[in-house]
Predict the structure.
Amino acid sequence: MPSNPTELTLTVKGMDCAGCARTVETGVARLDGVELCELSFATERLRVRGAVERETVVQRVRELGYEVAEPDSAPAAPSPAAAPAPGFLGFMWARAETRLALIGALLVMPGLILHELLGLDAPWAAGLAVLAMAITAWPIARSAWRSLVISRELTINALMTIAAVGAVVIGAYVEAGMVMVLFALGEALEGYTADRARQSIRSLMEVVPQTALRLHPSCCSSGCEERVPVGELRVGDIIVVRPGERIPMDGTVHAGESAVNQAPITGESSLVEKEPGAEIFAGSINGEGSLEVEITRLAADTTISRMIRLVEEAQERRAPVQRIVDRFSRWYTPAVVALAAMVAVLPPLFGQPFWNPSPEEFGWLYRGLALLVVACPCALVISTPASLVSALSAAARTGVLFKGGASLEALSKVRAVAFDKTGTLTAGRPAVVAVRAAACAGFGYEQIGHCDSCDEVLALANAVERRSEHPLAHAIVSASAGRGLDARYPTAEGVTALTGRGVAGVVAGREVLIGSHRHFDAAIPHDQRHCAAAAQDAASGYTPVFVSAGGAYLGTITVADTVRATSREAVSRLKALGLRAVVMLTGDQQATAERIAAEVGVTEVRAELLPAQKVAAVEALERQYGPVAMVGDGINDTPALAAATVGIAIGAAHGGASQAMETADVTLMSDDLRRLPFAFGLSRAAMGTVAVNIALSIGIKLVFLALVLAGTGTMWMAVLADVGTSLLVTLNGMRLLAYREREP
């Protein structure tokens, strides 16, 4: 046995329900040296920490009747696309235990038809039913015994075994067979639906190609291309992505231009234009152009690989409501056995019949056995994980990553949302919003493209700013390129930065100056109406820059951090969801904050805040409104994200907050803020579905409990109801896989 604690991650196969996972978890936890043991039914992943050998853990899992598929952690690289999941009958025939259940179903069918439906007494049919019970009960009884001996706990399998054996003792042969067959089929059905839910996440990885066309580093002709497995690619390699192909690796565009469909990663519905220098993600679909992509991450570290790992880890984190259900089910089963014993024994002490007085009348032993069947907690145990796993999967496929069921549950309770401004509600990059030219006939903001004189001002400024790295220069250059003005003049000569005043250069023989309003007030005469308008711009949070050529004022270029196209719609939808407050927190000046707030429609603005003051603001909002979500870019907003009930980071797939996938409670993979109301709606739908499932599980149990105690409910009807309820809550939970946000 190792002297130092180790961590093991194993994949456990053969589990049909959450109760199976709990049995394995309890059995492994009893091994000497185990400090922590957690098994997720959703992902089949067993995590063990402690001074224990891997072989010892594997042996214990097999002693409990389950198999260990492979050691280890999440796959290092995308695995080949799996074969399509088999249908239910194919799933049943794949394992010995479930094959026995299918055979048992055939054997019990004559007894069901002749005895239960037609009321005929056929001894041969009863014999077949007992045989069906025996072959179907063998793996179930063996599992119950192992759990009792190894884990020291009574399981659902024990309840069914006791009920079936008791039914044979009292002569209810057909019912004994039907109880076991229906229970086995129900367990298999749970396992099948859970496997389908797992496939919904694995299918994300199946979109990634397993090979790539690599350019040989010594040349760049098409003859130097070679097809290689993605696992052989290294950072810095250049790969070729042809039109219509899926992109196999994360990287940046080295050469070529194309429109790319990033929906598998970010959930964006529209194509995204890519040009040299643009970031690109594995799993995206290339458009009509050919691209050369320089790899920036290994196969194991691509954005989609990290998504898969994070979603699987999220499925393993249990929500508070799920923990409550798990704790409840631990003492529930022993309590049911005790109650059934009391039902069978106490009434006969007061003169009531112990055995069945007649075929039409049930004695109290039969009712006690039926109670064991009615009380089977399968539906209750599966009701919560079925819903949460489906919701987490649906979110991931839409570009929203929840850190776990706890985050999903917490978001459903949020009553106020706080937004950072820069990089969240706004694009975080200055952009030219208007140009005002002195030669323009009219006055006021002349939108780019509506005035030849405005185009001239922009083109001259572009020639000077082309080599600058200043954010305002980037805005001017980008706007000029968007208007097709970038080639009107060559790059300025003799470009000089004028400290505190601006930048100057010679364009087409004229000295062009781009400077601040203050410098022009002191040195360059300009239109007083433009002067007043620029002052108003500055007061409203815009940045005006003045342009002159040959000492003569030409006009003003107004630059601002622009609001994201989706911000206003997202805020409107959040209000429609009934949130009590939608607040903007920013370190920017009050005037700028109020202008942005008016554009997006938030209900409250708190400006000029330092990071510590943002934390205090979040705490104040929690005291005022209750649970609060903080939405930020995941970098400078980290303290506020941590202080909020739910921290939400945006744009993790775009490089602005790559570490946010590991730190935030919820991550929006794209910059589309409309994913936020989707996340809120999904979290509420998920918790609503959990509540409905729990109510159905308990409500149907209570109905059949009353029928059994009244002597009108049979064992096979009870187990059929349990199987039906398990199927109902599972399918109800899986509806969340297709969740779509309702239009406001």
About this structure: The CA atoms of residues 427 and 442 lie 31 Å apart. Residues 71-84, 444-449 have pLDDT under 50 and may be disordered. The chain is about 50% helix and 20% strand.
